[in-house]
Structure formats: C-alpha cells, structure tokens
Design a protein that fits this description.
Blueprint (H helix, E strand, L loop, with lengths): L3 E5 L4 H12 L4 H14 L20 E7 L4 E8 L5 H11 L4 E3 H10 L10 H17 L19 E6 L5 E7 L20 E4 L3 E7 L1 H4 L4 H10 L4 H20 L5 E7 L4 E5 L5 E6 L5 E4 L5
Parallel strand pairs: 3-4
Antiparallel strand pairs: 1-5, 1-11, 2-3, 2-6, 5-6, 7-8, 8-9, 9-10, 11-12
Helix pairs in contact: 1-2, 2-3, 7-8
This protein binds aspartic acid.
The site of aspartic acid has 14 residues, from strand 8 and helix 6.
Length: about 300
C-alpha cells in the first residue's frame, strides 16, 4: 500500500494530514487534492487563496483553480471567478460535469450557480486592511495607480496551494488554487490554472505543481517539463531542481532578473521532492513511509 500527498507551502499541512487519512482509508487521489485545496481556501489567514485572499486593484477577489486526473488526463479549470469560496470544487465539476476543460469569469460563475454552489463574500476585515495599505503604497510608487506594473508586479503578495497525490489504487491527481497576485489588474491570470505550467499529472509517471510569479513560471511550462524529466528517470527531487534551474537561467540570461519560482513533484511510486529559485519556500508532505511534515527548501540557484 503506497501513497503520498505533497502540497506547496506550510499553510497546507492541515489539509495534507486530512488528505493522508482520506487516502489511507481508501479514498481517491482526486478527492485528496480537492480536500487539501478546500482546507486552504477556507482558511481566512491565508491571504493568497480563496476566502481572505487579497483582492485585485479594483478591490475584487478573483480566484483561479485547476484539477487534473492522472488516470485519463482529464482537466477542470476555472479562472477569474468571483463570489465563490471553493473554486477548486467548481473546477472539479467542470472536469466531471461539463463538456469543457476551462470556464472563465462570468461563464464559470453561471455554471457554479446552475449546479448549486452558494455565493459567498470573500473579503475579510484583514484582507480589506491589507488592500488599503497596498493601495496607499501604490499611490506613492506608481504614477498611474493602475495596479502593479512590470517592476513591482510581485511585491504585494502571492502564493498558491498546489497539490499532487498518489492513492493506494496507483491513481494520481493534482490541483491548484489561488487568488493570484495581490493588486493584480482585473482579468489577470497566472500560471496556476494553466495546464503544464501551474500543474500536470500523468499516472504513468508522476505529477507537479508550481507556485511563484506566474508571469515567469508560465514561460517554461515547468510542470509538464518536470514530469517529462521524471519520465526520463530523474527522481522527483532531481526533476524539481533541474526544472527550476532550467527556466531560471533561461530567463536570467535574457532579462537579468527572474521572479520567484518553486515546484513540488511526486512520482507514481510515492517519492516526492521540491525546489525553488529563492530562499523561504516550504512544502508539506505525507506518505505511507513519512509522517506529515513541513520541508524547508534551499534555493537551487
Ligand atoms: N503562481 C501564482 C500566480 O501567479 C502565485 C503564486 O503561486 O505565488 O498567480
């Protein structure tokens, strides 16, 4: 009986514990990744995912989420969804109940309403406070005050919960959920809901999920690349490091700077690993061989 769950950032630890239990009890990897994402989406202290996420420049919380089934490569994605607390569960329904892979904005919201999701207010006192503070900073740092610009895009806060799981039936799944970059322009979408960039999983090999500056991560399709590396025989840890280094140096060579990039990887044998191009990245993981724990990652560049 081999299984594993790995998720970005230490805020995932409670969800990882619950998902590990679910899998041990015979639950499916698809349910496990959704469960971890829901834990983080529901947590108002996480200001970059779901309820309590810092809004865009207009003061609206716009959410992106994705889920992928490694068994048949089916995908469900929502982008720019407002007014729903658990975009991951809407994405799951896009996967199972819609003829499409991706629904955006109003279309995704109408779909959610049609199938019975309850509307919710996602702003909290804390997220409003942070938004007002950042708005003040922007007013002094940006002439136009139109939201973040190319220079300061990632300084107002961001982080994504990205999860990969293997269940005891040898099926894998992955998921991501995020409010994206704080103070983003309305309609902005990062890497998190983009297949191959923010997430990818294939039962035959393994899966990966990314977090960091979406504008840079998506240039390297990093998750698809990391999964292909595992397919070539690299361990999840090696694949994570190689994938981060490859995109980091490619972008650095031309631009002289790169945003934060981090990735978690797991293979279909229950092994897992993570890498980042910056200090401070942590992930949570549990498996049949390892108790739930938080892993600190050193920069690989
Ligand atoms: N990748 C996310 C985005 O660009 C943010 C993050 O994971 O830090 O929307």
């Amino acid at each position: 009986m081999t299984w594993s769950v790995i998720a970005t950032w230490k805020f995932s630890i409670d969800g990882v514990k619950a998902a590990g239990k679910l899998i041990e009890d015979g639950g499916k990897s698809l349910d496990a990744v959704e469960l971890v994402a829901r834990y983080v989406e529901d947590d108002p202290s996480v200001d970059s995912v779901g309820y309590g996420g810092i809004p865009n420049i207009e003061g609206e919380v716009e959410l992106d989420a994705a889920i992928m089934n490694g068994e048949d490569l089916s995908i469900g994605v929502v982008m720019g969804v407002k007014g729903y607390k658990n975009p991951i569960s809407i994405a799951r329904k896009v996967l199972t109940d819609s003829p499409h892979n991706i629904l955006i904005g109003q279309g995704a919201e109408e779909f959610a309403a049609r199938i019975g999701f309850e509307k919710a207010i996602l702003l909290t006192d804390e997220s409003i406070k942070k938004w007002l503070e950042r708005k003040k900073q922007l007013a002094t740092s940006s002439k136009e005050n139109k939201g973040c610009n190319k220079e300061n895009c990632d300084i107002y806060g961001h982080d994504t919960v990205g999860i990969v799981a293997l269940d005891i039936f040898k099926n894998m799944a992955c998921a991501t959920s995020t409010s994206g970059i704080a103070m983003k322009q309305r309609g902005r979408v990062g890497d998190s809901p983009l297949v191959g960039s923010g997430f990818y999983v294939d039962n035959y090999i393994g899966g990966a999920a990314a977090t960091g500056l979406g504008e840079d991560i998506m240039k390297g399709c990093i998750c698809f690349y990391a999964v292909q590396l595992m397919g070539e025989g690299y361990s999840p840890q090696e694949a994570a490091e190689l994938a981060v280094k490859k995109i980091h140096y490619r972008l650095f060579e031309k631009n002289g700077k790169v945003g934060n990039i981090a990735i978690v990887c797991a293979d279909n044998k229950g092994n897992f690993g993570g890498a980042a191009n910056h200090e401070g990245f942590e992930y949570a993981a549990a498996s049949d061989k390892t108790l739930p724990a938080i892993y600190k990652v050193k920069s690989v560049v």
